[in-house]
Design goal:
The protein has a single domain, classed as RRM (RNA recognition motif) domain (Alpha-Beta Plaits, 2-Layer Sandwich). Helices cover 21% and strands 30% of the residues. The protein has a four-stranded antiparallel beta sheet, with helices on one face. Strands 4-5 form a two-stranded antiparallel sheet. A hairpin with a 2-residue loop joins β4 and β5. The termini are far apart.
């Protein structure tokens, strides 16, 4: 997914699926390239947030304006432009792990 055209969608009810988000975004006339609900790798349960890649920067802004605070399954969504995840390594380049 391209970072600049990607939105973060948070505060999802745990039962919300990619299909649910796809339908919601399409109802709001947003052109979706890709959707991903983040799941626990062991249980498969949603972590309550996901990401969507949209076609244009204008679509990203429209999604934020339209969906931030929008209620779905009794939860108010938190929608903003996705940011790159911070590196898991500290600033010195180490992994911050103990060594023997």
């Amino acid at each position: 997914m391209e970072e600049e055209k990607k939105i973060y969608i948070g505060n999802l009810e745990y039962g919300v699926t990619e299909d649910d988000l796809q339908k919601l975004l399409e109802e709001k006339e947003l052109e979706v390239k890709e959707i991903k609900v983040i799941r626990d790798k062991f249980t498969g349960r949603s972590k309550g947030f996901g990401f969507a890649e949209l076609e244009t920067d204008e679509q990203v802004q429209k999604a934020i304006d339209t969906l931030d605070g929008y209620e779905i399954k009794d939860r108010k969504l938190k929608v903003n432009r996705a940011r790159k995840m911070e590196s898991r390594f500290d600033k010195r380049g180490g992994s911050n792990q103990f060594r023997k």
